[in-house]
Amino acid sequence: MGQDLPTKPTPHGPVLDELLIDAEVDDAELQPPARQPSAWLLLLGLVLVALNLRPALSSMAPVLGDVSRSLGLSGSQAGLLTTLPVLCLGLFAPLAPLLARRFGSERVILGVLLCLAGGIALRSNLGSFGIFAGSLIAGASIGVIGVLLPGIVKRDFPSHAGSLMGVYTMALCLGAALAAGATVPLGHHFGDDWRLGLGVWLVPALLAALIWLPQARQGHGAHHAAFQVRGLWCDRLAWQVTLYMGLQSSLAYIVFGWLPSILIGRGLSPVEAGLVLSGSVIVQLLSALTAPMLATRGKDQRLAIVIVMLLTLVGLFGCLYAPLGGLWGWAVVLGIGQGGTFALALTLIVLRSRDAHVAAHLSSMAQGVGYTLASAGPFAVGLVHDLSGGWNAVGWIFAVIGTGAIGFGLLAGRARYVRVSSERI
To answer: What is the pLDDT of residues 85-112, one digit of tens each?
Structure first.
């Protein structure tokens, strides 16, 4: 069971500063040799890399119907296609620190960016095998890069970590929104072919790799000191944080994977459905940046968690059942809710940890297990749609996952620390 805090959690100003923690980097080693001449190039590279961490996920949803018809996929197979990249986010995340110790974070990011571009290219070729194999490679690549970028931000920009985390979050959302809104129009522009609409997203991945090349040449290499955290996997509070992370992420990836298909089934064109998803993701910027700061002003985060989860559920049910005339309003509500749920999930990792090393290990647990759990949501939506022949029954999935997220969020939102020990080895 978690250990009570002596006082209410101290606001972190901004709280997302402390999310940029590398588990294996000793505090004294966080200050690298000066790299002023390449600081702006590094910042540009970080932004471009972050822009590429969502298009492979959000670009599939608007063309999923065309992909399924073209390749003869069932609803369950389409659900697996939306699930596979999310599953890889969790399964391949633990590989990142091992690769970074061996080759250095910068070199790993360059290599994995090229793998990401290759996975995106593969999705547009070789039929059913290509679409599934490419999705697996893309998801694995995103999972590795997503673990490494925050540590580089913390190491190279320690005095501006909070503001750069905001830029990082904005780049993630912007990449997702661009891919959701532009994939179908780009496919139409290049010959009315979904393959070209999906394949075009390898271009920004290659551009990011080109801009990142100088960082790989100047990479720091291995410099990590290991810390051991004992008792984390037996701590109830750690599991409550993890399950909240996983359940709210499940709803998020259901939206990425299936919202356009749901809206197309309700009568929207693929272009319109992609734009609705794109607009909802853009709205997330507002709550993703403000929710953590507001949540840390109270004695705990339970009220904030309930509010953003209810907004998420209201937006989901509105998009699924309400008249289409008010669809954009429901999409805005959904975006506000989901931006807040994701940001608070990250914030809880910091607030429930006594020190940087515990926070980093809790982050690894919450994201590794959480994203693996989250992958079941998109698959369940595809399965239910396949069995029922429509979308109405999907509302039960929203209700079950949302209720579970509220329940575990109320437990994780209490002002306590996980009860573990941390020591250098």
So the answer is: 888 888 888 787 788 778 888 899 999 9
